[in-house]
Every structure is written in structure tokens, then in C-alpha cells.
Fold this protein.
Amino acid sequence: MAEQKLKVTLLTGRTIEQGVGKERGKSSEDYFDACSMCYMDAGDMQKLGIKNGTNIKVTTKSGSVVLRAVKYRRASTPGLIYIPYGPWANAVCSDETTSIGMPTFKGTPAEVEPAPDEPVLKLEELLKAEFGR
Amino acid sequence: MSVIKSVTCPICGCLCDDIELTVENNEVTKVKNGCAVCESKFIGYRSEHRIKTPLIRKDGKLVPVSMKEAIHKAAEILANANYPVLYGWSSTSCEAQRLGVELAEEVGGVMDNTAVVCHGPSILGEQEAGIPTGTLGQNRHRADLIIYWGCDPWSAHPRHLERYTSFAEGRFEKSEWQSYLKKLKAQAGQKKVESTTRRLSAGVQIPRPQACSLGGMPPSLSKRGRKLIVIDVRKTMSAEMADFFIQVEPNKDYELVQALRALVQDQELDVDKVAGIPIETLRELADALVNCELGVIFFGMGLTQSTGKFRNIEVAISLVRDLNMRTKFLILPMRGHFNVTGANTVTAWQSGYPYGVDFSMGYPRYNPGETTCMEILLREENDATLVIAADPAANFPKKAVQNMVKHPLIVIDPHMNATAILGDVVIPSAFVGIEVEGSAYRMDHVPLPLKKVVEPPEGIISDLEILTKILEEVKAIKAQKTETNQPPAEAKPKAKTETKKKPKSVKKTKKKKEAA
């Protein structure tokens, strides 16, 4: 029986695809594909009963965002999810700066649930939804 | 068609200066020597995502206007603001950054650069503990132990390994590229053998001989030549290339460094594991650190953005200091944007402080956590923002951006990025290092010239020219204001207007502080 929700630790960071996408243009397909996704452990995906490419909803104290789940093939990383830097990651990462200017982009507690019927928002749609412009 | 050699790549802190570009009809058509990101930039600079004309938001929509109108509007916003934030600066030239400091001083704003969300904590750590460091040339020629801690050069600085560390052919240390290829081939061969044995034995398990180790050390750490160690929370591509990979539990780097410091000083630890790593492994690691000729630690966001932040850096520097009692060791931050080091350097030689400099009192003030852009946005104290050569809407937490767009937002950038989409005044600029020249600082503080290889599109000017024009306009608007505010008979002191200009927000913070 697949679980409904999974408690994980959220990391955000660079990927080479994100680097290529950001130089191509933030509204480009490359950037969208590279940043609106979330690397997950294969075992965790099995627990949630989702496949490679299924949409998931990541929720933290700061908010929630729908992303495409991608199986992390290099190693097993149970309990860790990794979202490349970008507006999608920032919709959920913590704004706690511990008074030194730096938000906590890595190591935020988060929850993941399957959301196969919810769409991943494009950059313009995401900005419109979050900032009204 | 012309081929331009030795072009400096304006993307990451590596500033590779061996790029060869083929230019045809004022367009870059071929990129040689660069990484994937480099090629993407040199080909993508003229993409459909380029901003073609200046834009101003009217009735909720961005509409094209003339450059003169956009610059006047931007100057008006800045001149009338009480506490503007001038943020970005890391993807432009030092010349533009210098002018930025002048503009910030003129408008009594806050000058902050992207270091605040990348290596700001490293700078704080360095201010606490000092930094024993060297240039990338030193590492290339002499370092025999390379450690990447909390960073993935293969993704963020793709040519770092090839140009400055393990895979670079140094004068005294040889490249490990061939041995890495051999390792890959051996792994592929082993997989083949395994699959054949599986097929032939039809499910019967045949035990494989274990790799033997010398003197307790894992074979990869007792090898000759350059050693590469990666310490990270997950196995990255760089970790796969490494001779030795250590997987640390998230947010436990501080404990790990402190444990290593104890082991390097020959102290005993009463625990079995630190940060999820067995003490035996750590002892071997400590031996490797002490026994190298010249070691270097490169660290990235894994240390600066996780729990501990600048304290992680401070102890990492302390570890290097301890190691320098036994051997020679260096430490270097892996700076992200191509000129973020320049932004810190220029702001420091202009104002005395590297980032988060507040000019609202008429003199530079620096108090990270108070005068840094992130907290100002989160506390909603700013009443205007200028963003240049950065994209905070894509890289700041949601709440900070929500507060940023509540007040006028000026964006200067070549591309229609996320911040430009949200902007009130958008001014297109030419690409530094492609369409205009300038200078930039590499991650090890070596300044390098950036070349102009093609002409910018018609009507598009450089960051430097845009800032010069904005500064002139701001000065003119302020002079006009002073004239109209004061009757000519009492042409009294400037100081009066200055005190009048004191931002409310600063007073507010002061009050808050007193209350606390």
C-alpha cells in the first residue's frame, strides 16, 4: 500500500542542466525542464507509489509547489529530495536567515505527496500565481 | 569569418581564459574549449529571450518606451526613494560596480551583491578566522590532495577539475585524467564480467575477491599521484570521479570538521560515528590530510547554505590552520558568478565593506543581518529596488520577492529573466564579456580582462553607460529638488536637506533595536 505523504529533507542546488538553461534564457524550455523537477530516491518513489516523471507536490512551512519527480540514478539517497535552484525551488525553500543574510536553501524539512493530476506551472504562470504580475 | 583566441568566459568564477570563438557577420557561430554552460551562453546571448527595447509598466503591462524615458523614470524612482536597495552586480564588470557604489551613496541606499545568497557566510567566516589561501595556479602545479567539500564542480564549475586541479597537467603534479579513464574502463569490464558470470552461473552466487588495502588505508587513498576527495550529502558526478567519497548527513558538516580537527591533533574520540561516518574512515581521512605535500579544500554552498552557515566556514578554516602545523594546506571558496569576487573587492575598496553596505546615514555602514538585502526585503523596509546583472526573483525565497514587488522595481539585464518579468522599469543592457569589455576577478582574486567579440544590438548600451546616465539624472533631479525646497535667500546648508532625507526605515530599525 502506497503512503500518502513522505517526510523528507529538502536540498536545493546547481545542476549542469540548470546552468545551461539559465544561460539560454529564463523563459526557455531548457530552463523549465531543468528547474521544475525534483530528484528523488527510487525507494522513496516506490513508497509513494509514483513513477519517474509523475508530478508531486512538495510542501514546507513556506509554501508548496508542484514538480516533476525524477529518479536519482547515481546513488540511493533515502529521505533526501533535491530541487535545482530556480523559482520553483524558491517557492518552498526556507527564508530563515538566522540573521546573517543567508536563507536556509539546504536542509529544510519538507513533505512530498503524489499529485498526478496537478500541472507543473510554467515560469510566467508561477510568477503570476505568486506575485500577481 | 574570424577566430578570436584567448577569450575569457563570463559565466562562473573559473573565468577560463582559453576560449576560442568563431565570429561570422557579427555573430558567434562556434565555441571551442568551453564547457556546456559556456557554449550555451556564447550561442544563447542572441536568443529570442533578449530584451530588445526599454520597457515601463503601465496599467499592469510592460510597454516599450525610449531609452531616455526609461532612464529618467529609473532615476526618478531612485531619487525619490527613502531607502532603495541596489542589488546584483555579480555578472557585470568592476567598472560598472564602482559606479554602482557611487550611485548607492548618492541615493542613500543599500549596495548589496549576490554574495549574500552564496558566499556571504564565507566572507563572515574569513573575517572571524582569516584565510590561508593561494591562487588556482598554485593548486594546478603543486597540490597533491584536492578536497571538494559541499560542492559539485562538475555541475557548477565544469572546467575547474580540468584547468586547476586533478585533471590539470601541473609542473610538479601530473594530471589524473588517464588514471580516471583506466578506472572507468576497469569498472565497465568488471560489469561485463559480472553479467556474464551471472548468465553462466544461472543464479548461483560466486564470491568475488575483495580489493586488498595497504596499511589500513582504502586503496584509493594510498595511491600515488594526485588524490581527489569529495565530501557531500549525496553522490554527485564529481563524487563519482573522486578517489574517495565521504557521504555526510545533511546539516552535520560542523560536527564532521570538528571531529577531523580533533583527529588531526591526535586526539581520541569516544564515539563510533560522526555525521553518519565511522570513526575508522575519518581516521584514514585525517591521515591522508596530514600526509600530503600540499592540500587544498574547495568549499561550496553545501557549507554556506546549511545549518551553521558561517560557523561551518570558520571551523573549516581552523582545520586548515591546524593542518598547516603539520603540512601545507590551503582553502578556497568556489565562487559562483564570474565577477562576484569583483563585486566584493570593488565594494570593499570603495566603502570598506564587501557586501550589504548601507549608505542611508550618509556614510557606509555594514551589519550583516541588518543591512543585507535579504533581511531588508523580509522586514519590508525598502521602498524601491534596483536589480542589475542578477535574478533575485528566481533565486530569493518567495516572501522576499513578494515584498520586493510591492515597491517600484528597476531591472537592468540583457535577458528577460524572472525579475525583469516582474519589473516596473526594465532597461536592456549589453553582455559584458561578449558585447562590451571590462574586467573581472577570478575566484582566487586574480583580475582578468573580458573581451568584446561582437557589437551589441542597435540601441543597446552597456551597464556602465546606463548607470552613468542614471547617476547624472539623479544628481539633476536632486539639485532641482534642493532649489525648489529652499528659498534662495536662505541658501543654507546641504546638511539640512540631508538630515531631512534620513530614511524613516532606518529610524524604525533603530527603535526596534532599542526595544529589543
Q: What stands out?
A: The radius of gyration of chain A is 14 Å.
